[in-house]
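Consider the following assembly input.
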Amino acid sequence: MTNVLINVPRTARKGEVIELKALIMHPMETGFRPGTNGTIIPRNIIERFVATWNGAEIFSMDFSPAVAANPFVSFFAVAEESGTIAFRWTGDEGFEAEESVAIDVA
Amino acid sequence: MTWREPRRRRAALLGLLGVFAGSLALAQGGADRGSVDGRRSSYREMGPALQRMQDDDTANPGMLFVQLGRQLWSRPMGVAGKACADCHEVQDMKGVAARYPAMADDAAGGSRPVDLEGRIGLCHAQHQQSEPWPAESRDLLALSAFVALQSRGQPIAPPDDPRLAPARAQGEALYRTRQGQLNLSCALCHDDNAGRKLAGITIPQAHPTGYPIYRLEWQGLGSLRRRLRNCLIGIRAEPYAYDASEYVALEIYLMDRARGMASEAPAVRP
Amino acid sequence: MAARTTRRAFIAGAAVVSVLPVAAARATPATMAAAIEEVTGGKPVREGRVTLDVPPLVENGNAVPLTVSVESPMNEGDHVRAVHVFNEKNPQPHVFHARLGPRNGKAQVATRIKLGDSQRIVAIAETSQGEFFSAGADVIVTLAACLEDLT
């Protein structure tokens, strides 16, 4: 299970704009770096990050090799309903990681 | 009327001393964070963006390793099938990292100084009866980061163990020895020239207050040992073997030198 | 924020940037412009509304904190649809492309990026009305001394 650190408030008022932060452990190997013997280390990056709120997409990001290792993302969302916020990362070498958090919107 | 006249020379020297003291006082000004009697954590040499990265637990990449360490703490390992949690309470780890390196009894029946990773490695081998982790193992560093986090904010407090004295003396001697193609000693940069610029970067005083650190250059978490090896390579010296006791000796001296400064693991550094 | 590149800072930056082991392909201002045009479809890009927050001087190019924020009501009729960030001198010109919508409430994205050299970064916001706004920033990248020897 890939190491993921999500930071989302557990509760919010309806209509409140909240910040969502996610950190994931991943080497984000660019594919441009030579290894110890001079040959290029193959590219291995996360390509796509998608966040959904009760299944509806609220944010997505296409990463390039220029995104730093152990990528961090912060974005905002309007709290409209209680439920589940899900984060999903996909990338090279069949990489897939998913994490969800519950939120209570009053 | 020349410089040889004692009165004139004394006045001039006193004047210079005044100017020096004045500028030194000015240079010490500013936020007191990470500064104990003129000693500065390398945190203070970083720009505000990196300081924020370190301070924000939701953004500090080192916290990913702390989280991994927290999971490993409770994971049964080795032939003994024991987890760290089976013998240790997390709250008992408070202050522990701040008093390492310390003496430990090894399997052969002797005792020697070990750093925090060495101590965890001994538990892993002796009590969990597990294969030792390889050098700079991610799991070992994660556990070290988790333990070190429990000392965050605590003053560095090397133990008053007389058995550490020989290693401390060796560490200090190494710190002051010129070595490598550039013929530099640690002291030359980090004592004599700390605060001045080297190729655009401010030379830090090099207090190891935040280890294991998330070093941007490594794009990952690493130990003081790894950082010392980078230093040795930087001065074009032959790095000591990875398991050499020189690293522990140096760390004992450096932690003594940093005595009283606040522990800030897991730190972020460029 | 665009940095005033003083002569001293320029010399320091130029002196420190070592020969980085990158592959032959290298973005240039022209490649960046072409990548931008691919996204905008040649439509006009206006300066304004976009704030690109990145430190003017970074100690290490491996993880540069960057925040893009765009002034927008973020309602159904008028919102930011996408944020695109480009670079001038990395091996390829893209940094990231983010898709937003009225559900975001606030058009602000933050991440950490890699910069292989001192260079210009450009952020482009695309609105639901099909308009493009941009902001740029110059970043000087120094390198930490005493690097690793991977061998």
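Residues 56 and 85 of chain A are 9 Å apart (CA to CA). Ask yourself how this observation constrains the way the partners meet.
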